[in-house]
Amino acid sequence: MSLQPASTDIATRAQSVIDEFKGLEGPLLPILHGLQEEFGYVPSETVPVIADALNLSRAEVHGVVTFYHDYRNHPAGRHVLKLCRAEACQSMGADAIAAQISQALGIGFHETAKDNSVTLEPVFCLGLCACAPAAMLDGEVIGRLDADKVEEIVAEVRS
Amino acid sequence: MTVTIYVPGDSGALALGADKVAKAIEAEILAHGIDARIVRNGSRGLYWLEPMVEVATDAGRVAYGPVSAKDVPSLFEAGFVTGGQHKLSLGDPEKIPFLAKQTRLTFARCGITDPVSLEDYEAHGGLTGLKNAVKMIPADIVKQVTDSGLRGRGGAGFPTGIKWKTVHDTAAEQKYIVCNADEGDSATFADRMIMEGDPFVLIEGMAIAGLATGATKGFVYIRSEYPHAIAVMSKAVEVARSAGVLGKSVLGSSQGFDIEIRSGAGAYVCGEETSLLNSLEGKRGVVRAKPPLPAIQGLFGKPTVINNVISLASVPIIMDKGAEYYRDFGMGRSRGTIPIQIAGNTKHGGLFEVAFGLTLGEIVDEIGGGTVTGRPVKAVQVGGPLGAYFPRALFDTPFDYEEFAKRDGLIGHAGITVFDDSADMLKMARFAMEFCAIESCGKCTPCRIGSTRGVETLDKVAGGIEPEKNLALVTDLCNTMKFGSLCALGGFTPYPVMSALTHFPEDFRPVAVAQAAE
């Protein structure tokens, strides 16, 4: 975690996100979602700014940021591909699909391709269990993954 | 007359290309100069037929499916806007056996109406329950819900009316209604479907809960993996607010009630009610010890009703048709209907709402139609990642809270994952432990440490290292987790592990021993 004061730019942008949600009851998660939308991740420099605004310790804010799988501490690739790893998708061959995608992209889960094209993340259930195996590419849902759809996905993230 | 064409906007349909189908239909409408409009309805829950497109004709609705964008020109050539025959014709959707055999109470409108049209909602019987509730005293609303026999559909099966009564009886300046829409269990999608397909029924249920308990503020905590549900719910809340269903006065009554939509952040454990409350408060989603009960000290320390989506969405029909009407469905102490979700390796995957009491075999073999791969069913997991694996030998178990408990299983949120004979049950048991380790909130030791030790020990079994000794250790560990964990995550992870071990012992024999025996 940076001990330097937040750079003015990040601090200013963070402050406007914080101001937007500060009035809510229990505003921390909405603020963190807002920051991730603004920056693509939750920059560690924003932690003291949040702590100050909500009258919390930096440790408390850090604790919350690191508890949830959604919040990243560094930017993701240009595309984010989430592959469902849960039971219903496993029953339809999700493990083989994951191996295929991982090989095609040259990265494992929680990794970003060297050319920064894509980040591969596991997800435990997208609620598409009756059309498994399922994935989510940049927020778009994809069901019944097969070799053809994998090829399309790989082509899309590389374009 | 304008023809109405329905193309589901449900995530499951979108995942199978519904947006492309809608676009193609729009292009054809323009090209042919047809007077038609497209409604993005919810899904009827017949996912093997999605995207299922419907046309409203003079003779009623006619369905086609599964439609892909490339089928659209030929559908227009076949005159589908007037219900013309096509190779994808399904006829009257209500007569498709999978739908005809259901009893749709909670999902009565799902897939039929325009999800964000309040006029449509009212035209199909919506708001009648809330209108009745507005005229009643709070205690009578609570009594009607109690008398209906409705139990929490999130998994625990606790009587909904009793929760409400506790909040009703606890005096406080501020009370809350929290809807648990953190539907993280694999094989479950009922909450997602109702939020995307009939959001007003949930809003109506929450407003009734508010009137019954004196709560004026509601939160819907939706998992971030459901962006479409978040979008539809947010839109529906706006519509309800501008129509006076929500706001300072609920339908002109003296009580106000408003709803805020909140997004989770990818933590499975936040589906546990107390960790959800912590998460809403902006804290780590760590489980709280009970007591105090959330009904007495819940969100921000205030009396809080926390109910699952389906529990709340089942309330409007109870307030509309009466407690007896709802209670007359079901068996034993499991009253009313349950939306069963059939998923995984199944021919007819989807949502099947029916009174309690069907046997597991009827659901898997007759309704689900067996596996899509055509191989024999080896096991089904009922109740999500914390539910037990059932072998075919237990397929006579009726779908009922108590009957499942007797067989060391649970209904949970009523999701069923079907596995064919290629499933490796040792691998599935290991996955259960691994999942628990990934998602544990870390508060209690049996869950936090036990799950990691469980993975290591099952890896030893898989590697053929002292299998008997290590399986005894796993059994002992499961016992500790079951009785020593604070919540269902650590406490129920032993269900999939032990059921796999008990019913499929052959999968736990090391390869070397298995080969030697052959």
Automatic annotation (TrEMBL), chain A:
The UniProt record lists the keyword rRNA-binding: no
Binding-site list for [2Fe-2S] cluster: 84, 89, 125, 129
Cofactor note: Binds 1 [2Fe-2S] cluster.
Pfam family, one: 2Fe-2S_thioredx
GO molecular function: 2 iron, 2 sulfur cluster binding; metal ion binding; oxidoreductase activity
Reaction it catalyzes: a quinone + NADH + 5 H(+)(in) = a quinol + NAD(+) + 4 H(+)(out)
Keyword set, alphabetical order: 2Fe-2S, Iron, Iron-sulfur, Metal-binding
Cofactor(s) required, per the database record: [2Fe-2S] cluster
Highest taxon listed in the record's lineage: Bacteria
InterPro entries named among the record's database cross-references: NADP_DH_HndA-like, NuoE-like, NuoE_N, Thioredoxin-like_sf
Family: Belongs to the complex I 24 kDa subunit family.
Protein name listed in UniProt: Formate dehydrogenase subunit gamma
From TrEMBL, chain B:
Record-level Gene Ontology MF annotations: 4 iron, 4 sulfur cluster binding; FMN binding; metal ion binding; NADH dehydrogenase (ubiquinone) activity
Essential cofactor(s): FMN; [4Fe-4S] cluster
Signal peptide: none
Lineage top rank: taxon: Bacteria
Entry keyword set: 4Fe-4S, Iron, Iron-sulfur, Metal-binding
Pfam families according to UniProt: Complex1_51K (PF01512), NADH_4Fe-4S (PF10589)
Domain NADH-ubiquinone oxidoreductase 51kDa subunit iron-sulphur binding: 426-471
Coiled-coil positions: none
Gene3D superfamilies: 3.10.20.600, 6.10.250.1450, NADH-ubiquinone oxidoreductase 51kDa subunit, NADH-ubiquinone oxidoreductase 51kDa subunit, iron-sulphur binding domain
SMART domains, alphabetized: NADH_4Fe-4S
Function summary: NDH-1 shuttles electrons from NADH, via FMN and iron-sulfur (Fe-S) centers, to quinones in the respiratory chain. The immediate electron acceptor for the enzyme in this species is believed to be ubiquinone. Couples the redox reaction to proton translocation (for every two electrons transferred, four hydrogen ions are translocated across the cytoplasmic membrane), and thus conserves the redox energy in a proton gradient.
Family assignment from sequence similarity: Belongs to the complex I 51 kDa subunit family.
Protein name: Formate dehydrogenase
